[in-house]
Amino acid sequence: MMNVLLDPRTCERARLARDPRFDGRFFLGVRSTGIYCRPICPAPAARAENVEYFMTAAAAAEAGFRPCLRCRPETAPGTPAWQGTSTTVSRALRLIADGALDAGSVEELASRLGVTSRHLARLFRQHLGASPLAVATTRRLQFAKRLIDDTDMKFADIAAAAGFGSLRRFNAAVRATWNRSPSELRKLRRPLSAASGISLRISCRAPFDWRHWLDFLARRAIPGVERVDGSSYARVVVTQGGTGRLRITPDDHGAFLNIEGVPPVELFQVVRKARALLDADADPLSIIDTLREDDSLRRHVEARPGIRVPGAYDAFELAVRAVLGQQISVAAARTLAARIVTHWGEAVAEPREGLTHVFPAPEALAGAPLESIGLPAKRADALRALARAFANGVIDLDAEPQAVREQLVALPGIGEWTAHYISMRALRDPDALPAADLVLRKMLGNGAPLATRQVEWHSQRWRPWRAYALMHLWAAATDHASTREAS
Prior knowledge:
The chain is an alpha+beta fold. It contains 23 helices and eleven strands.
């Protein structure tokens, strides 16, 4: 799909039609009211001369517009404007999501990224239409608004969860943004469900192939740490004071998160990791438009257009699982992961629904006798080296994906396949591709495996969505194998 941000006429048509395909792609400010909205807002359409378009909610807020209380911009799908355009911006957004600007300065953030603050501000203006500080402030306010609307949390806890330094700052920021106090906003909300814990809804762009997402995670779920049934994914989450639980339940327009046992100050990070696991910010229409141009992919993409790249809740956990999966079946790797959890993972205080353990921290595996659970010596050595690298900070997950892959490949027993697999799931790199993958090579060669260099050449037409192409071909291979078994 074209970049509507460069075409006001397309934006105008989309807002007049309230086209859901454009939800989250841009926001519109109405000068006569001072309010900004999603293009699907049910309010009467404003006159064209009173409308101004923005790349992001942060850009609209920085221009002085207040968020609409009817269409709730904070619930829009993640803005994909920056995706595939600037690795510096994407890295900066990850750091901002981790709280880099809650206590630190823009200058410190820029230094971590290896650029000047002026250059960082220029990149943000180019790709997001807003400053780094405006993006961070809007992120805090949007998360706070969702907690006001969707939970019964105390306002002091919401202030802590959203990264405000004090209740006073929280109250002032909410009033300045919505012209109402938190109490007044809460009176406008809809009735809540009776679910225990914190329940939040995550919007995702359609289409979303939930069956593929659940099946993919179910085959790889680590017993004791994760559990997947026919309708939801659940896992243990580590908190500063112990453990909590996260459950993700798909629905027609997104997913519901149910979070239990997580302190308010850690809620945002749990939600951020859940969004990554969901691949919630994916832009399926853009991905489909690119991939269907390849004759070898078209029928697979059109058959299952909503396939995502399931992310990873924890990068180290995913990395261990990837190393375990080298040259063995998915089921065998799952069995070995379960043994690691049983031997070196900590038991949770209140096990429930098969969620019994925390996945071991890097320090726990750095010197563990992994051969005792049936691992070959070289694989055990590779896992210990990986654990030491994570424990000692040798693996810098904030670096560019290519740099992280180089750090991983420098470790014993980790090759390009493993590094790219970790990159596409844990780092959310949409263009990562383990080109040596046997299933990928067979699918492209119609059963006769192509050489890795041929796969690399062929895959150039998929960029920047090579990870999604891989997922489509893996899914097609799985569907084909299931059909043969059933016949």
